[in-house]
Amino acid sequence: MRDAIRSLGCAAVLLALAVPAGAAQQGVASKLLLVKDPPSGPAMRKILWKVKEANADGDLSVVGDPIAGGATLRIRLSVSNHCSNPPCDSGGGDQCFSLPAAGWSPIGAIGFKYSDATLANGAVKVASIKRTPAGVFLVKAILQGAGIALFLDDEIGFYGLNLALGGGDEYYTGSGGADPKRNDAQTFKVTNEDGYAAMEACSPSGAFVD
Question: How far is Cα 151 from Cα 142, in angstroms, rounded to an integer?
Answer without folding.
Answer: 16
